[in-house]
Amino acid sequence: MSYATMLTIALPEIVLSLGALALMLAAAWGGQAAARPVCWAALVVLIGAGIALAGPSSSGVEAFYGLYRADAFSAYSKVLIYAAAGIAILMAPRFFERTGGDNLRPEYPVLILLAAVGMGMMVSAGDLLSLYVGLELQNLAHYVLASFMRRDTRSAEAGLKYFVLSSLASGILLYGISLIYGFSGTTGFDGIADAFATANSTGLTFGLVFVLVGLAFKIAAVPFHMWTPDVYEGAPTPVTAYFASAPKVAAMALIVRVAVEAMGPVTIEWRQIVIFASLASIFFGSVAAINQKSIKRLLAYSSINNIGFALVGLAAGTPEGVSSVLVYMTVYIVMTLGSFMVVIRMRDEEGRQIETIASLSGMSKTRPGLALAFMAFMFSLAGIPPLFGFYPKLAVFNAAVAAGLFPLAVLAVVGSVIGAYYYIRIVKTMYFDDPAPAFAVSGSTVENGLIAATAIAISPVAYLAIPALTGWSMAAAQALF
């Protein structure tokens, strides 16, 4: 295969890279005034990368000697990543303008584009080396994004915490990669799978554990979740919304690919780790969120809880299980982005950000439309029918039962019931408590449109999309098997 052909296969990443470089130059020349045009241009670049997926980039071939895989699974994941990244860019301009004019800088969308390049490499990785390069490219952009508001001490603290703990996780992951390479003699997923199938090596098992631990940090699965509440609370809200969506999809897709392709012959071994992380995340995320006073910290624990449910589908280790994970992550990012768009609207009359749950009191009377949308997001995150958040939970439970993991499904259902409490508590605060001071009115057509679109996407109307969603996700899942 020629280099021209291989570059064509990796066209989405090339589009993003060239777009990011061009916009970086535009940001340098245009300065602060170029922030909004660069944001809109970044959206065009993301759309272009998405269009590029329609060609050889989803044809099921390998490029760069096995380092890069362009299949239906990676294409599905990249569509979710690009969509979440685009919404995170759309959310940013008005937020940063209201927190201070100099906070809206054109580097923000450029960093997200560069992170999208890394996330694309992650979900297309066919080798531990390309996996690590993609992961670190994503992380380098994320360190800056977490501390993007330079004069905000909470943002600086969030960036520092994320940097330190992410570096630790990267070290653990590298150690696992070195063990696997040392005992298998290769870093390619196919060669690693052959080594696991033919050798009963303790060193390979230890390498498996360390790799999964390093990747578990990226999805904030318990017990590697400790960075999530502090970073979510301290980072600017659009950045928090981005952290809770696109990187979660990329990291989850990466874990699925590594588990199925590289470690498929030892499913029994890694299934035990996944089941523990799943149940621990579900129950810890449910219980720890109960006493939270900050809505951003509550949503951080909600993300931990939801990652636990997604891992239930992975534990099945079947095409149906992987398909359920993809469906779950699709619906999850819609619910999460919608919730954070409501949080962005939580401002007092002077434009200051409010993040306490108590400030939601009586919002049904002061902002009825916003309260209705937030109620839909909360009930959907809880998995309460008839909202669409119920369907992905049902899908992962069905996959677990079909794989013979009935106790796991039962315990996950119990955890779902516990977690529903804090979602319902928010609805009770909005609809039954005495009204708090009303939030400032926002005239943003973009924000209003995004909230309405995401609310419709998790309404009962979305059940009409189930045949298309399940068909696409199953085709993507079967690409791994």
From TrEMBL:
Membrane topology: Multi-pass membrane protein
UniProt entry keywords in alphabetical sequence: Cell membrane, Membrane, NAD, Quinone, Translocase, Transmembrane, Transmembrane helix, Transport, Ubiquinone
Location in or out of the cell: Cell membrane; Endomembrane system; Membrane
GO biological process: ATP synthesis coupled electron transport
TM ranges: 6-26, 38-55, 75-96, 108-125, 162-184, 204-227, 239-260, 272-291, 298-319, 325-344, 370-391, 397-424
One annotated Gene Ontology cellular component of this protein: endomembrane system
Stated role: NDH-1 shuttles electrons from NADH, via FMN and iron-sulfur (Fe-S) centers, to quinones in the respiratory chain. The immediate electron acceptor for the enzyme in this species is believed to be ubiquinone. Couples the redox reaction to proton translocation (for every two electrons transferred, four hydrogen ions are translocated across the cytoplasmic membrane), and thus conserves the redox energy in a proton gradient.
Molecular function (Gene Ontology), one example: NADH dehydrogenase (quinone) (non-electrogenic) activity
HAMAP family, per the entry: NDH1_NuoN_1
The reaction(s) this protein catalyses: a quinone + NADH + 5 H(+)(in) = a quinol + NAD(+) + 4 H(+)(out)
The encoding gene: nuoN
Species in which this protein is naturally found: Hephaestia caeni
Name by which UniProt lists this protein: NADH-quinone oxidoreductase subunit N
